[in-house]
From TrEMBL:
<keyword id="KW-0560">Oxidoreductase</keyword>
<dbReference type="GO" id="GO:0016491">
    <property type="term" value="F:oxidoreductase activity"/>
</dbReference>
<protein>
    <submittedName>
        <fullName>3-hydroxyacyl-CoA dehydrogenase</fullName>
    </submittedName>
</protein>
<dbReference type="InterPro" id="IPR036291">
    <property type="entry name" value="NAD(P)-bd_dom_sf"/>
</dbReference>
<dbReference type="Pfam" id="PF00106">
    <property type="entry name" value="adh_short"/>
</dbReference>
<dbReference type="InterPro" id="IPR020904">
    <property type="entry name" value="Sc_DH/Rdtase_CS"/>
</dbReference>
<dbReference type="InterPro" id="IPR057326">
    <property type="entry name" value="KR_dom"/>
</dbReference>
<feature type="domain" description="Ketoreductase">
    <location>
        <begin position="6"/>
        <end position="190"/>
    </location>
</feature>
<comment type="similarity">
    <text>Belongs to the short-chain dehydrogenases/reductases (SDR) family.</text>
</comment>
<dbReference type="InterPro" id="IPR002347">
    <property type="entry name" value="SDR_fam"/>
</dbReference>
């Protein structure tokens, strides 16, 4: 798909991987809607790239539907949805204080898995009804999962389950939407320079980076964004989870 002039939705676009993706796709000529619960930060990003900012809580059906409708009114039907909204704290299933509160698990799964599915179902409904391009393609849905989906570390039960769910959904949804010319892909980042890791000391960041085979450093958000751009451009990529991790394999802790 040639994304020049195409409408794109990026959830979690106000920071981290989502921000880098919004910036990169806009540089390729896409009309980008930056969707995030951080309204002020989203507006800063949108202004910088010539896009629009829309407050969106991906876990709320009404908020998500409204955001997509506002974006469609401004840019037309979105041909690409990049789901970057997500996160989750580290917490053991059974810790010193006893079992993890169930609501803590539910909250992370709701944000990462259900939120991603919520956006996908709504965006896909619009894509399916759109006119196909010359190759018969109508759209692309891209999930941001994680290497934790395959190598969940101690303390990552909720995060691992939610990201594993996205990885599993990728092929299922690709098969379901194939008849409509809508592709579904996922990218599984390894250890990247994100706002969360940015809170760690430089020394600790270097130590973590030294554990990555090659390049021996943390991943850069721009590298993730460039891969998103390639996935959008390559029509034969469908139903797959692509790792971008410098060949790292996570240890148990």
């Amino acid at each position: 798909m040639d994304i020049k002039g195409k409408a794109v939705l990026v959830t979690g676009g106000a920071s981290g991987l989502g921000e880098a993706t919004a910036v990169h796709l806009a540089s390729q000529g896409a009309r980008v809607a930056v969707l995030d619960i951080q309204q002020e930060r989203a507006e800063e990003v949108a202004q910088r790239i010539g896009g629009i900012a829309i407050r969106c809580d991906v876990t709320d059906p009404d908020s998500a539907a409204t955001a997509i409708a506002v974006a469609q009114e401004a840019h037309g039907v979105a041909r690409v949805l990049v789901n970057c909204a997500g996160g989750g704290p580290i917490r053991r299933v059974v810790g010193r204080d006893g079992p993890m509160p169930l609501e803590d698990f539910v909250k992370v799964v709701n944000l990462n898995l259900i939120g991603g599915f919520n956006m996908a179902r709504l965006a896909a409904a619009q894509m399916i009804a759109a006119e196909p391009d010359e190759q018969g393609e109508r759209g692309l849905i891209l999930f941001t999962t994680s290497v934790a989906a395959f190598e969940g570390q101690i303390g990552q039960a909720a995060y691992t389950a939610s990201k594993g769910g996205l990885a599993s959904l990728t092929l299922q949804m690709a098969r379901e939407f194939a008849q409509f010319g809508v592709r579904v892909m996922a990218i599984a980042p390894g250890i990247f320079e994100t706002p969360l890791l940015g809170n760690l000391s430089e020394e600790l960041q270097r130590t973590i980076g030294d554990g990555i085979p090659f390049p021996r450093r943390l991943g850069r958000s721009e590298e993730f964004a460039e891969l998103v751009g390639h996935v959008a451009a390559n029509p034969y990529l469908n139903g797959e989870v692509i790792r971008i991790d410098g060949a790292v394999r996570l240890a148990p802790r």
